[in-house]
Each structure stands twice: as structure tokens, then as C-alpha cells.
Design goal:
The complex is a heterodimer of chains A (132) and B (401). Chain A has 132 residues and is an alpha+beta fold. Chain A is built from 1 helix and 9 strands. Chain A has one helix at 2-33; strands at residues 38-48, 51-60, 66-73, 76-77, 79-80, 88-90, 95-102, 112-119, 124-130. In chain B, a hairpin with a 2-residue loop joins strand 1 and strand 2. Classes of the chains: A alpha+beta (132), B mainly alpha (401).
């Protein structure tokens, strides 16, 4: 019975140490290797009810929250009317959907539009769609 | 022995339950995932002067919602719909849940470690104390002593003095008493049992479950008791070499108690000597007065402990007989230090194994993590070297051509 108890104690010590070390090293690695990332799942453009619409599905694949500071189309910022809602913070692993509505005169048929999401880290993630 | 087995069983059961909790905790956490909410933000903006309406929608948990800065403005509308079932949201909360599970698992492991260690200490100390206490209890039961049983260190000191005097007397009267010893042994057998009721505490070593003491109880010093037992054992071993050959028949008390040589039997040997009994009778009243005086002097500082728990080495409870905080602290610190020393003495044999395990785990984890760094660095270096080599080859090729 002594051996069983001592074995259990040693196993517990090992598990506790493993947990502590894994937490420590994970934090250590995250401190230096925390990266930001967006992956675009899919995007499409359509004209519906007399309105042109661009839909982009993306996901925050980084290791932390994603801070969106601006949206661009073909290199030109979308300027909010009134007070800017940015920055917008998307938690880790969040699936998000961005919809852009405009008149067919703004989003003209047959034109390629490059929608960009600019983040607080200065990076720009782009997705290209072609208006039908 | 029954106590030992039951404590071991308890240790095993508690360890198994703790391990079960350890593995079930993450499942409980996964089951208790928070609800997720859907956020929908509409932004009215312009692009090249034309109005464009942007709508950003995402799902987040309540925990993340508290951390996320929500910005509402006149130009934007924020709305929250009801809870929705989204598998992706569960994926998003996976990291938090994993961290909590890791923390809980670590806490459970720590509790298992502490609990197991405490039980090991308890079991070990019970094993050592039970083997020592059983003969003492048997001896005290056979003598049916009503004399004061003091658990104080002063009592142990008195017993030590009696033994030292008796040893000196034995040394001085070695061969001259040989013919008389048959008579004294018979007398001592008869007189010892009658005198034992009058004899002081020297023949009855400190007994935790013994009768109540007439003296004020002074905080028991476990180290002092252990020292006394060691002294008595060493002295009795010395005596057993000499008198057993010379005296021979002066050891009937061994038959009266048990066959094993224990401290109580050694004390029984002491009690069999009428000279020791006389010394004790002569010394005890004066010593008792001294002890009472000493106890009175210490009454303001004395703190009464309950029966010390040999299971953990710590006093099971502590009640102060004084308002003197410093005295209380002293008493408590002494009990604490005794317990810590006992715990360390028990854990000490396992220290190398624990240290080795820690080193191995650290090496494995450290090697893994820094191996990743090393691989990245090596990859970058090799890529750079390949680039330089390629550039060099290109330049060389140009030169050749």
C-alpha cells in the first residue's frame, strides 16, 4: 500500500509540475509569438432589390482579439458618417460577416472590388470580389 | 495495526477520488460553457462620396462581451439578438475553457499532492507512534498506576535523572551485590508493584492517553520525548550488556510485561531495582515542589494544548490559558515547527524522486519549447544561407558567362 500511495503522490507531483510548466511555457511563448490573423471563409457579391451587396465571411484565427480600425474598398477608406464606431474588437476565434450595401451605381456590375480590413497592428487583409 | 491499515485505505480512497475529480473537472467545465450572444453593428459611411452601409456581425460569448469594448455612436446602431447555437462560438470559447480546465486540473493535482503527502505523514507517524505506544500502554495498564502522569518535558527530565543515578549506582555496585541480588530481585518484584502506586512518573513514560496530570500541563515537546526515549534505549542497551551477564536474575520484570525489549520494559527494569525506587521516592517530593513552582512561574506563559496529534505532528487544537499573545505565538510556533520537522523527515526520502521527476519534466517541456524556437531559428538561418549561396552561385554564373 505504501508503494501505491507513493506512486500516486509521485504521479500527482508530475501532473502538477506538468501543468505549471505548460502554463508557464505557453505564456512565455505567447508573449513573444502572439500573432494576428484573419482567414476569409468565402465572399460573394450580388444585386438584390435594386441594391448591390458584397458579403464577406471571415474568422479571427489569431491568438488574441482582433482590433479592426478601418475598412477599405480598392484602397479608399470607408468614412463613417458621424462618430466612428472603430475600433471594433473581435474575440479570439470569432466568425464574423461583413456586408456592404450600396447602390448599383456605386458598386457597378463587372467591376472587381478589393475589400480590405485594416487592423490595429497595421496589417491589411484583403478579399476580392467581382460584382455580377 | 488496524489504524495503520485503515489510514492507508483512506489514503488510497481519497487519492482515487481526487484523481477522479481531476479528470472530471474539465468535463464539468466544458459542460458549463457560457451562452453566446450575437453582435450586429451597422455603420453608415461614405465611399468616394457615395453612401455605403456596412454591417458587421459576429458571435461572442458573455465573457468575451465583457472584455470587448462596445462603441455605439450616432451613426451606428448596435443590436443584440437572442442566444443562438453556434458551433463556431464554442470553438471560440475553447481556449478559455482549456485554460480554466488546466488551472482546475493543476489545483486538483496540488490538492492531491497535499492530501496524499499529509496522509503519508499521518500513516508514517501513526506507524511509528503505535509501535512505541502499545508497550507503554500495556505497561501502564499492568501497573494500574494512579500516579500523576505528566506530559511535560520536566517529567521526562526527572525520569532521565533517575535513570542516570540508577546507572551510576549499578556501575558502582557491580560484583559486590552479586550474591544479594537474588534476594533483592524477589523483594523488588514484590515491592515494586506496591511501590509503583506511590512512585513518581519516572516509571511511566509520557502517555498521551494516560490519566490526567495533577501538574499544570506544559506544552509537550515531541523532540524532548524522542530524545529521552533514545537516551533510555541507549542506556538500557548498555545496561543489558553488563548486568545480563553479571546480574542475571535481576530481570524478572521482562517476563511480567512482554518479550520485546521496549522503553517501557527498560523502565520496568529500572522499577525492579529497589535502589532506583528509593531514589525516586526521595527525589520526587522535592522535585514535584520544584515542578509546581516552575509551573506557577510559567502559568502566565503556559498554553494548554490538547493531546498532540501524532498523525500530522501538529497539535490538533490549541487553546490558550493566557491572554499573552506572545506566549500563544510561541506555543503555536513550537507546535508548527515540530509538525514541519516531522513532515520534512517523512517527505525527505521521496525528495530525490520528486526532484528527479521535476528535472525530467522540465527538461522535456523545455526541450520541446526551445526545440520549436531552435527549429524556427535553424530554418531561418538555413533559408538565409541558402539565399546567400544561391545569390553567390548566380553571381558566379554571371561571371562565368
Amino acid at each position: 500500500m505504501d508503494r501505491i500511495v507513493s506512486t500516486i503522490i509521485l504521479l500527482s507531483v508530475t501532473i502538477a509540475l506538468a501543468m505549471i510548466l505548460s502554463t508557464y511555457y505557453t505564456g512565455f511563448v505567447n508573449l513573444f509569438m502572439n500573432y494576428e490573423g484573419i482567414s476569409f471563409d468565402y465572399a460573394y457579391a450580388l444585386v438584390k432589390d435594386g441594391q448591390a451587396e458584397i458579403v464577406i465571411h471571415f474568422r479571427n484565427t489569431g491568438e488574441g482579439k482582433l482590433t479592426v480600425v478601418a475598412l477599405e474598398i480598392n484602397g479608399v477608406d470607408l468614412e463613417p458618417t458621424g462618430k466612428s464606431p472603430f475600433p471594433l474588437e473581435l474575440p479570439y476565434g470569432t466568425n464574423a460577416m461583413l456586408r456592404l450595401h450600396a447602390s448599383p451605381e456605386t458598386f457597378m456590375s463587372g467591376v472587381t472590388y478589393e475589400v480590405a480590413i485594416r487592423t490595429a497592428s497595421g496589417r491589411t487583409y484583403t478579399k476580392t470580389v467581382v460584382m455580377p | 495495526m488496524a489504524v495503520k491499515d485503515s489510514s492507508a485505505e483512506k489514503a488510497a480512497i481519497i487519492s482515487i477520488l481526487a484523481l477522479l475529480f481531476l479528470f472530471l473537472a474539465p468535463l464539468m467545465l466544458v459542460r458549463c460553457q457560457p451562452d453566446s450572444t450575437e453582435k450586429d453593428i451597422e455603420i453608415d459611411c461614405t465611399w468616394k462620396g457615395a453612401p455605403v452601409s456596412a454591417n458587421l456581425k459576429w458571435t461572442e460569448t458573455k465573457e468575451n462581451a465583457a472584455a470587448t469594448t462596445k462603441t455605439d455612436s450616432s451613426g451606428s446602431k448596435s443590436s443584440q439578438s437572442g442566444t443562438t447555437t453556434n458551433t463556431q462560438a464554442k470553438t471560440a470559447t475553447g481556449s478559455t475553457t482549456t485554460q480554466q480546465a488546466l488551472m482546475l486540473t493543476g489545483a486538483a493535482s496540488g490538492s492531491v499532492l497535499v492530501g496524499g503527502g499529509a496522509l503519508m505523514v499521518k500513516k508514517k507517524l501513526e506507524g511509528s507512534s503505535s509501535s512505541e505506544q502499545e508497550p507503554k500502554q500495556a505497561a501502564s495498564a499492568s501497573t494500574s498506576s494512579t500516579t500523576p502522569t505528566s506530559t511535560s518535558s520536566a517529567g521526562t527530565r526527572y525520569g532521565r535523572e533517575v535513570m542516570e543515578k540508577h546507572q551510576e549506582e549499578l556501575k558502582s555496585s557491580t560484583q559486590s551485590q552479586a550474591p544479594k541480588q537474588n534476594q533483592t530481585s524477589t523483594q523488588s518484584q514484590s515491592s515494586t508493584q506496591t511501590q509503583q502506586s506511590k512512585q513518581p512518573n519516572a516509571q511511566n513514560p509520557p502517555n498521551d492517553s494516560g490519566s490526567t496530570s495533577s501538574l499544570p500541563v506544559i506544552a509537550p515537546t515531541t523532540a524532548g520525548q524522542l530524545w529521552m526515549q533514545q537516551q533510555m534505549n541507549s542506556q538500557s542497551s548498555k545496561q543489558s550488556d553488563k548486568p545480563s551477564t553479571q546480574v542475571g536474575a535481576t530481570q524478572p520484570p521482562k517476563q511480567a510485561t512482554s518479550s520485546t525489549s521496549t522503553t517501557s520494559q527498560n523502565l520496568g527494569l529500572m522499577a525492579s531495582s529497589s535502589s532506583a525506587a528509593q531514589i525516586a521516592n526521595e527525589m520526587w517530593p522535592q522535585r514535584q515542589k520544584e515542578l509546581e513552582q516552575l509551573a506557577k512561574q510559567r502559568s502566565d506563559r503556559s498554553s494548554t494544548f490538547s493531546t498532540p496529534s501524532y498523525s500530522t505532528g501538529f497539535a490538533s487544537s490549541f487553546t490558550s490559558a493566557t491572554e499573552n499573545t506572545w506566549a500563544r505565538l510561541q506555543g503555536f510556533s513550537s507546535a508548527l515547527s515540530n509538525g514541519l520537522s516531522n513532515a520534512w523527515a517523512t517527505i525527505k526520502p521521496y525528495a530525490p524522486a520528486i526532484l528527479l521527476t521535476a528535472i525530467i519534466v522540465t527538461a522535456v517541456y523545455g526541450g520541446f519549447i526551445f526545440g520549436l524556437f531552435g527549429a524556427a531559428m535553424t530554418g531561418a538561418a538555413s533559408a538565409g544561407a541558402a539565399g546567400v549561396a544561391g545569390a553567390g552561385m548566380g553571381l558566379g554564373g554571371k561571371r562565368v558567362s
